[in-house]
Amino acid sequence: MAEKQNDQQADAGTTLEGDGQRFGIQRIYIKDVSFEAPDTPKSFLNEYSPEIKVDLEIQHVSLDDIHTNVVLHLTVTAEQEDKTVFLVEVQQAGVFSLKGFDDTTMGQILAVVCPNVLFPYAREAISDLVVKGGFPPLYLAPVNFEAMYAAQAGQFTQKAANEPVAKTEGSKN
Fold this sequence. Notes:
By secondary structure, the chain is an alpha+beta fold. The chain contains 4 helices and 5 strands.
């Protein structure tokens, strides 16, 4: 019975199956979180109209033959009059089961599908932290991970096309 229960847990969250392919969400969690408001309470006395800067990074590491840990790093900085109003950093992570995908599809899943799953959780965490810090809610716009992936793939292709072909010994030219 324990074996059957483990099989059910392994299949929990499975969203794609077919042709031996499997994608599942095993766990979603916050890996790290930080909130800083270095100029409070003075910043509360000024009119609130900061410039918001968002930095985003995606990392993934294989845990075993099936499981991959994907971490979405989001850093949001609010600055006003050359002072940092607040700085929020969230590392929203997830353990995903991925099986039976070729390298190209696996790359797309890790760069597009997994971050699309994690982003709403990170956006909520950031908004909650900003509000708990005494500031108005911060609603981050959705991110088009597919366009980011396509742009990154295009840059890689462009760079490869622009690099000179290395000559090998014995080649004539």
